[in-house]
């Protein structure tokens, strides 16, 4: 594989992580992709890209105020069957499952609400 790139074959497909150039290279050289294209089939590809620029103290403060919910994630959360309706259903499913945990009302919450 590419330097700085990780990948794994799983029940629900293949995942690759790393820098953008490494991920694109892995997708272009995937032997399964060639077979799919030759058969005229379409494959679903999900791309998750994120960038956060908070300091540790700022993020902890936002969690303490109840602005963020935290929950353990799983590969099943990310690698779900493709849904043309959009990935917002993932968030809805997490919330309805009750998995996200929010900070209880506290002094920091009251400071923001005043």
Automatic annotation (TrEMBL):
Q: Report what the protein is called.
A: Uncharacterized protein
């Amino acid at each position: 594989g590419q330097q700085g790139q990780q990948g794994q074959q799983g029940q629900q497909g293949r995942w690759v992580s790393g820098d953008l150039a490494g991920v694109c290279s892995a997708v272009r050289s995937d032997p399964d992709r060639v077979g799919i294209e030759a058969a005229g089939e379409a494959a679903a590809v999900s791309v998750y890209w994120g960038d956060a620029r908070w300091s540790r103290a700022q993020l902890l403060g936002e969690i303490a105020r109840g602005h963020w919910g935290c929950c353990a994630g799983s590969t099943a959360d990310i690698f779900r069957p493709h849904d043309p309706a959009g990935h917002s259903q993932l968030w809805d499913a997490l919330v309805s499952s009750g998995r996200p945990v929010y900070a209880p009302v506290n002094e920091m919450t009251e400071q923001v609400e005043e």
